[in-house]
Amino acid sequence: MIDSEPAVPTVGVLAMQGAFAEHVRALRRMSVHAIEVRTKAELDSCDGIVIPGGESTAIRKALDRCELLAPLRERIASGMPAFGTCAGMIVLADAEPDGAPPCLGLLDVDVQRNGWGRQLHSAELPIEYGDGSTSTGVFIRAPRITRVGERVQVIARLANGDLEPIAVRQGSIMASSFHPELTDDDALHRSFVDLARSRTASGVSSRADMHRD
Length: 213
What we know:
Layout: E1 10-14, H1 20-28, E2 33-37, H2 40-44, E3 48-51, H3 56-65, H4 69-77, E4 82-85, H5 87-92, E5 93-95, E6 107-112, E7 123-129, E8 134-139, E9 144-148, E10 153-158, E11 165-170, E12 173-176, H6 187-201, H7 206-210
């Protein structure tokens, strides 16, 4: 008996602002079908979605303009894997301490824009993953996680005395304060692609989720 080859997921990158091209390149190193997403039709074809860094308010306005806000929230709420980096984490988060209303409100964390202040406009800092491995993270006006909900797992911390959380996972949603797409460290992208592959292999097609009669 010949085993069938595993299904190749289609992973989209929201391509409205920020380092979306770098995410696409990182994902293609994972041997998945990575596409840029700007329309609902492109979103509907995806088994997972990356929301890159940029400016969270501008991303929200672009989602509204392209009529993607509600479809994106529905797809992620239905279980489609999502990965937000930097501003993408703010877009996913449940609340912001500065009082701004949440955009998607699907990730049970609170975040603060420019949480380390302007002095951390751009910096490379040591990080530690949950398995004990270490790397370097690129932080650019990075948001700070100020509260982690009970359902949320911390998967990376700053490798300092405080071990401050900088990457989290809640079910099929992942998010990080830093920009993994700007380094050669593919750990988070690999974990995210595994989520998309598992969903595809289980027979739960993201496209079927949206087109049940």
